[in-house]
Amino acid sequence: LPGGDEVNNILIEIKDGTGILTIHRPHALNALNRQTLEELKMALVELRSNEQVQVIIITGSGDKAFVAGADIREMEGMTPEEAKRFALLGDEVFTMVETTDKPVIAAVNGFALGGGCELALACDIRYAAEHARFGQPEVGLGITPGFGGTQRLPRLVGKGLGLELLLSGGTIPAEEAWRIGLVNKVVPYVLEEAEKLAQCICTKSPFAVKQTKQLVVHGLNMDMARALRFEAEGFGLCFSSGEQKEGMKAFGEKRVPSFK
Ligand code: CAA
What we know:
Helix content is 48%, strand content 17%. The protein contains 11 helices and 10 strands. Strand 1 and strand 2 form a beta hairpin. The longest helix is centred in the middle third of the chain and has 20 residues, at 80-99. It is globular and about 60 Å long.
C-alpha cells in the first residue's frame, strides 16, 4: 500500500505451545501507529483464547528495532483529545499484555524506545539482544510517555533511575538495562533464548503457571495482608486441578509429570 502500511503489521506464529507476535512495520522501525495497536489487540485476544498457546513472546521484525516508539508521523498532527485517545488505546493494549493469564516474554531485538520500551515494560519478562537500546525520549519531542512509561519504569527500576531516564530522554545499552534490572538477561540470540524459556514454562502445570502470573500481577497492586490471602486462595485452587494430583504423583513415582 502507499506509505508501506499493510493490513498485517502483526505477524502471529504458533510453535510448540508458544505464540510469537512480531511487530512488523520495518519501514518505520516497527513504530506503533493506531492500526498496529488495534492489530496487536486482536492478536492478543486470539492468543489468549487459543488453547494451543501457553506462553506468548513479543518481538520486532528485523534485527534493528524491537519497537522505535509510538508513530511520530501519526502523532504529529493530533489534537489534545486525539492524543489522549491514542494514549488510552496504548494503555488498553499494554494492560492486556500485562494482565493476560499467559506469561508474556519480550524478546527485545533492537531499539526499544518510547512506546517500545513501554511495551517491553508491560511484558512479564524481558530478554535483550546485545545491541538493544532502551530509553524514553519523549521529553525531547515535547511530550510525556503515553503508554505507561511514567508508571511501569519507576516501579521496575526505582524512582531515581526511572526519573533519570524519563527526564534526560537518554538511551542506555542492553548491558546497562540489565544492570539496573530493566531486563532479565542479555543474550546474543534473543528470540531463541526467549523460546527456550517459553519451552521450559510449557513443561510446567498450565494451571499453576496461570495462577502464579495472576498472583504476582494482581497481588502487587494489593496491600501485603490482602495479597497473602489472595496467594492462599490461589494455592488452594491448585488442589482442585488434576494437575496437582499428577505433579505430586509423578514426584512419588520418580518420573516427569505429564500435564497434557
Ligand atoms: N515513528 C515513526 N517513524 C519512525 C519512528 C517513530 N517512532 N522511528 C523511526 N521511524 C522511521 C524513520 O522516520 C525512518 O523513516 P524514513 O526512512 O521514511 O525517513 C525509518 O524509521 C528509519 O529510521 P531512521 O532513519 O531514523 O534510523 P536511524 O538508524 O538513523 O535511527 C532511531 C534509529 C535512533 C531509533 C531513530 O529512528 C529514532 O530516534 N526514532 C524515534 C525514537 C523515538 O523518539 N521514540 C519515541 C516516540 S514518542 C512515544 O513513543 C510516545 C509514547 O510513549 C506513546
